[in-house]
Design brief:
alpha/beta, two-stranded parallel sheet, 9 strands, seven-stranded parallel β-sheet, 269 residues
């Protein structure tokens, strides 16, 4: 499914009137004209399709603007916000700008991640710190600054990885950082509960995104894992976005502190 192809499911207005900040809303550049959409961009576009206004935050100005334009094509209001999610000052400024531009903030989605290093021996301390700073530190910062700004009854969704459930990759930093998101999600859910702000984690498996294709090219074991998926295929970023949209909506009003695995059954069978 290419970047511009949307799910055929009819929108239901699940997020009508909501203001959503998506951190990591861009898609990694690709020379492939048929490259799939990334998770963050799919979330932003689908949220707009369900009626939300979306602040599209990314470290790349071009990526943020491209996603905001796609949000506009869905009839929603898209605002491009630029900032480094690992920098406390910039993370705080991203939340402040989203709040200022949208007028209110009802939800936060954090979709960030990189994988560096190969095994303990070939993972440098610098690589470990860089991965933890983005994969776990950035979600912490986003929640730290966004939770006080989110309206009562709002929602936070982190996008993690099935690598947090087991030693799924050859990067100890990636696997460890994604495992840490489970604990962060529970803590944010605890702090948000008095105001009815829910926090949950979506856990994608093998998803066909530009980052996923790069990982497959580097790691033969990832490609081999495709044969073990009970549903017989990789997922799409749109399917991840459907799970995120559900958790953002009132249909998930009694769900908090939980993880929703989107992996075609790979970790269950």
């Amino acid at each position: 499914m290419s970047e511009r192809q949307l799910p055929t499911i009819r929108p239901n207005g699940l997020l009508t009137g909501r203001n959503v900040l998506v951190v990591g809303a861009g898609t990694r550049p690709s020379d492939d004209p048929a490259a799939p959409v990334g998770n963050g961009r799919a979330v932003a576009v689908l949220a707009a399709r369900e009626g939300a206004s979306v602040a599209c935050a990314d470290v790349s100005p071009g990526a943020a603007e491209a996603t905001a334009a796609l949000v506009g094509e869905e009839g929603g209001r898209g605002v491009a916000v630029v900032g480094d999610a690992t920098d406390p000052g910039q993370s705080s400024a991203v939340v402040a700008e989203a709040l200022s531009e949208l007028g209110a903030l009802d939800a936060l989605v954090v979709n960030v991640g990189i994988g560096l290093g190969a095994g303990l021996t070939d993972t440098s301390p610098q690589q470990w710190e860089r991965v933890l700073a983005l994969n776990l530190g950035a979600p912490f910062l986003a929640a730290k600054y966004a939770l006080p700004a989110i309206a009562d009854g709002g929602s936070i969704v982190f996008v993690g990885s099935a690598a947090g459930l087991r030693a799924a990759t050859n990067s100890p930093a990636y696997d460890s950082s994604k495992a840490g998101l489970f604990g962060l999600t529970r803590h944010v859910a605890k702090e948000g509960a008095p105001r009815g702000v829910r926090a949950n984690l979506v856990v994608p498996g093998l998803i066909d995104t530009p980052m996923g294709r790069e990982a497959s090219a580097r790691r033969a074991s990832r490609t081999a894992s495709l044969t073990r998926i009970p549903l017989g295929r990789q997922g799409t970023a749109w399917e991840v976005a459907e799970a995120v949209t559900f958790l953002l909506s009132d249909r998930a009003s009694y769900i908090t502190g939980q993880s929703l695995v989107v992996d075609g059954g790979l970790n269950a069978v």
